[in-house]
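<instruction>
Derive structure tokens from the sequence
<data>
Labelled lines for chain and fold:
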Amino acid sequence: MYCFNCVILKRGKKLEDASYVLDFNEEIDFNSLSIREKNKGEFINKILPEIELYLNEKLQIIEK
């Protein structure tokens, strides 16, 4: 199993002020990317459209 975590902060902010926390888990059967956001809905409405433009592909979001 492989795990990667990334915290996205605005310059000069503290860890608890993180805009996003990304957790990537690689396992035998599947891989997953979990995204925690400080402001609910911001990732889907602001960041995801930019990623889809970059990848030229619509991404599937599974919410828990």
Summary: The beta strands are 2-8, 20-26, 31-37. The chain is about 20% helix and 35% strand. The chain has a mean pLDDT of 87.
